[in-house]
Design a protein that fits this description.
364 residues; six-stranded parallel sheet; 12 helices; 15 strands; globular; disordered N terminus
């Protein structure tokens, strides 16, 4: 069949089949870097864009924003041609740009699902910031869209690529301080007013959806399993104008199948970033644990406490970007695929329910 005839038939069958057909394409050659389009040019996107210089397999090739001034500023800074600068209105035309392999969605939480689905339909792989979405149902829709398009979906859990956290996982799950019995994980900061994070229609929730997900995800990756029961208490001063629509502090207890219990804190009114894994022979501690830099580890075993540094490795942001690139090259499932984001969202919904109803919630 002639190529022109094939395209006509696919177009007639609809966008869904066109995208599915594109998924059968061979992996890109390793002699070129995987091209990323960054969607949403806020503060965190600025950080991400600066990290491509440290990547071995990834490069920034396109920008998407609703603000022309940002497109001009960052387009000039990163030498992105005007043909590769998109608005939200013409976003779907990225399907015609072969330089774009991956779309990195760095938007308010409530916009994640829409742009992940649109990116998949455009035939692009997707990196999506955490939390993956604002509901379990949205997460499932995103996974289904990428699966139908035969595109990779990875969630931006950068700490999984940070050397201290990688070492902590290895030590905890290998029983270095004995079988894990207790995990404590506390994350919070003093939130400044007038941010989209404090607007529930955009954020989907308060501190738990923002900083608390680090407490939750760390507890899960340190335990190496998913919780089966959740108990939670919310504490929010509704007279504080920051918290008109979202929660401030949530404390929650996770119970795991092996008997591990994790005590976690999420807060918009206190500054902390730490976790500790407590086993039968000692403990492993990181403070700060999941910050952009400056992680410090201490280990106590058999009564002796000492600092510990991991082997030198690639910085977390660049490692995260390159991991998805390598998964595309090798056609592998990302370490933190969409299912990881879905697993966190299932627990988040249970935490909110427990705090709202004042009772334990069992997880299937």
């Amino acid at each position: 069949m002639r190529e022109a005839d094939r395209r006509t038939i696919i177009t007639g069958l609809g966008m869904g089949l066109a995208v599915a057909a594109s998924g059968a394409c061979a992996a890109p050659p390793r002699d070129r870097k995987i091209g990323y389009a960054v969607v949403g040019l806020g503060r965190y996107a600025e950080l991400i864009m600066s990290k491509f210089a440290e990547c071995d397999h990834s490069r920034l090739v396109a920008l998407v924003s609703g603000t022309p001034e940002k497109l001009e500023k960052f387009g000039t800074q990163y030498n992105i041609p005007k043909t590769h600068r998109y608005s939200y209105a013409n976003f779907d035309t990225i399907r015609d740009n072969p330089d774009i392999d991956v779309v990195y969605v760095i938007l308010p939480n409530s916009m994640h699902a829409e742009y992940v689905v649109r990116a998949a339909k455009a035939g692009k792989h997707v990196m999506c910031e955490k939390p993956m979405a604002v509901s379990v149902a949205e997460c499932e829709t995103m996974i289904a869209a990428c699966r139908a398009a035969k595109r990779k979906l990875m969630i931006g859990y950068r700490s999984r690529f940070q050397p201290h956290n990688m070492l902590a996982i290895q030590l905890a799950q290998s029983g270095f301080v004995g079988p894990t019995r207790i995990i404590t994980s506390e994350h919070g900061f003093d939130a400044k007013p007038n941010q989209w994070r404090l607007d529930r229609p955009l954020s989907g929730g308060g501190s738990l959806m923002d900083i608390g997900i680090y407490s939750l995800n760390a507890a899960r990756y340190l335990a190496g399993e998913d919780p089966v029961e959740v108990s939670a208490i919310e504490s929010t001063d509704r007279s504080d104008p920051r918290f008109r629509t979202v929660e401030d502090r949530i404390s929650f207890l996770l119970r795991f199948p092996s008997g591990i219990e994790a005590t976690c804190v999420s807060s918009y009114s206190s500054n902390h970033n730490a976790y500790r894994v407590i086993g039968t022979k000692g403990w492993i501690e990181l403070e700060p644990a999941t910050s952009y830099e400056g992680q410090k580890m201490r280990i106590n075993r058999d009564g002796r406490t000492e600092p510990r540094d991991p082997p030198a490795g690639k910085a977390q942001h660049a490692a995260q970007l390159d991991h998805l690139a390598e998964c595309i090259f090798d056609d592998k499932q990302p370490l933190v695929a969409g299912e990881e984001g879905l697993a966190d969202m299932r627990v988040i919904e249970a935490i909110y329910r427990s705090a709202r109803e004042g009772q334990r919630v069992r997880l299937v």
